[in-house]
Design brief:
By secondary structure, the chain is an all-alpha fold. 70% of the residues lie in helices and 0% in strands. Helix 2 (15-23) packs across helix 4 (33-46) and helix 6 packs antiparallel against helix 7 (87-100). It is globular, with a radius of gyration of 15 Å.
Length: 122
C-alpha cells in the first residue's frame, strides 16, 4: 500500500487500519519523513503517546512539514496531559510545540482547554 493510500485511511478516520498499513511498509519506506509524519498523525488516535514523543523528537528539527506535524502532536499531547491533571507535563508539551514551530503558538492560544490563564480548564 502506498503512503497516499494510507493517508486516505487516516483521512477517513481509519486510524487502526492506517497504523497496520504503516507497519506493512518496508523498513525503508517506514522511515521516510512522509511515513513518520503519518505515523505521528495516528499516534494520538491510537494512544501511542510514547512512540509519538519519539517520532516528534525525530521530526522537530526538520523541514516545515516535519516541524508542523511535531507541533500538532505536542499540542494533542498537551491536551491529553491537562485532562489527566498533569499541568507541568502539559506546559512542557506546549513549550515543545512552540519551540518546534513558533507560528503554531496561535493555535495553542486559541485552545480553550489550554488557555486558562491560571484558572481551572474550561
Amino acid at each position: 500500500m502506498s503512503i497516499t493510500a494510507i493517508e486516505g485511511l487516516a483521512d477517513l478516520g481509519m486510524w487502526d487500519d492506517a497504523w497496520v498499513a504503516l507497519d506493512g511498509l518496508s523498513p525503508g519506506e517506514r522511515s521516510t519523513p512522509a511515513a513518520l509524519r503519518l505515523r505521528l498523525r495516528c499516534c494520538p488516535r491510537t494512544h501511542a503517546w510514547a512512540l509519538g514523543e519519539a517520532v516528534a523528537g525525530m521530526l522537530r528539527n526538520g523541514p516545515t512539514a516535519d516541524r508542523n506535524a511535531a507541533a500538532v502532536f505536542y499540542h494533542a499531547n498537551a491536551r491529553r496531559l491537562i485532562n489527566a491533571g498533569d499541568r507541568p507535563g502539559a506546559a512542557a508539551s506546549v513549550s515543545a510545540a512552540i519551540e518546534t514551530w513558533p507560528d503554531y503558538h496561535m493555535a495553542i492560544m486559541l485552545d480553550p482547554l489550554l488557555n486558562c490563564d491560571g484558572q481551572e480548564p474550561r
